[in-house]
Amino acid sequence: MCVPHLHKSPANPHSRTENSPHLLPYGLETVLFGIDARRPVLTKSQQAYADVRRAIIRRALPAHTALEESFLLQHFPYGRTPLREALKRLAHERLLAWPPHQAPSIRDIGLYEIQHLYAMRRLLENEIAVLAAKRATVEDIDRMDSLQSLLVQASNAGHVYEAVELDFALHAAISSATQNRFLAEASNHLNVQSLRMWYYAQSQLGVAGIHRSHTDLVTAIREHDPEGALALSISHIKSSLDRQQAILKPNDAF
């Protein structure tokens, strides 16, 4: 399998300077690792995780790809230990299946499962929107505003992967604002499984403007308007499913 440039990020105005080449555009080191964006460099394990995750979400590594050690060493500029640590985290997030005594492989989501996934999104995210509108603190809203601003910049610039990661982070910030960690963890787990679908839809249909429904939802939460937040959440999930159905083919898997 030829998978060129798996560890390269696209040039954009938010990339770091050559003196700190391993930090990520749009502050994604904070999104992925919760670390201070001013930190000089990421660890090798963090770099490896970010690069392999990016390749999975962008489908440069398709579903069912076996991540043999020799394959990873050939295509990613890291040693065995950082790569193994990266795979452990990706398996914990259930982006990988890792049976005993076998190489890990990339999980898939079949076409028939997408309706099930969106049914769960409706159950979780509509409740999350209502609770966030009722319970969000000033700090929660500041975090949402920061992520929303970055999402606007990334989507307007056409940086699809970064916009998708920021979309995920914004959903995570909204779920955190419910002050219910179990609800937040369930939502985050579900949305990690959605990342490849989100990327595929945005890369096919365009990423410009995807931030608008998020902007409205954050506004409703800021204004502590649970009814408005619920209506916007319902509309947002329907729009997301419509975009998936517009491009999916019978044999697609994620």
What would you note in describing this structure?
62% of the residues lie in helices and 2% in strands. The protein contains ten helices and two strands; from the N terminus they run ααααββαααααα. It has helices at residues 28-33, 44-57, 69-75, 80-92, 114-135, 138-156, 160-176, 181-205, 211-222, 226-247, and strands at 96-97, 105-106. Helix 2 (44-57) crosses helix 4, helix 6 (138-156) runs antiparallel to helix 9 (211-222) and helix 9 packs antiparallel against helix 10 (226-247). It starts with 27 loop residues before the first helix and ends in a 7-residue tail after the last helix. Mean pLDDT is 85; it is low at 7-22.
Enumerate how many helices there are, as a single number: 10
Strand count: 2
- How many structural domains are formed by the residues? 2
The rough form would be described as globular
Neighbour order of strands in the largest sheet: 1-2
Distance between the termini: 18 Å
Q: In terms of per-residue confidence, which ranges show pLDDT below 50 for 5 or more consecutive residues? A: 7-22
Which range does the strand content fall in? Answer: under 5%
Could you say what the CATH topology of the largest domain is called? Four Helix Bundle (Hemerythrin (Met), subunit A)
CATH superfamily of the largest domain: GntR ligand-binding domain-like
CATH architecture of the largest domain: Up-down Bundle
Radius of gyration (CA) equals 18 Å
Tell me the helix content. Answer: 55-70%
- Which structural category do the helix and sheet elements fall into? mainly alpha
Name the helix and strand elements from N-terminus to C-terminus, one letter apiece.
HHHHEEHHHHHH
